[in-house]
Amino acid sequence: MDALQLERKIMLALKQIYDPEIPVNIYDLGLIYEIRVDDEGKAFITMTLTSPNCPVAETLPVEVQEAAKDVEGIRDAEVHLTFEPPWTKEMMSEEAMLDLGML
After folding, report:
1. Which site in 34, 55, 57, 103 is 20 to 30 Å from 17, CA atoms measured?
2. pLDDT means per 10 residues in the chain (103 residues)?
3. Domain membership flag for residue 97
4. Cis ω for the linkage preceding 20 (within 30 of 0)
């Protein structure tokens, strides 16, 4: 399986993780900035949180890492948490905005 297919599988896995305060998955919420898989099957994920004081700041990155590692073909996963650029509601997908009645 090539890297692009693995990245898509990780994206689908991350769509199963929901923000505990907003009833939208973290991918459509715009918390995932990048998913990359190298030739050895290691995933690199860059993500953010809705705020640095987010109550799941300790647990959500671990949940993302575990979800990526559970994807068949992924041997390891590394999650980098960043606040640059800071998350804004404009990062949400149209689907998320519709779900939240923002469109």
Report:
1. 103
2. 94 94 92 97 96 88 98 97 94 92 84
3. no
4. no
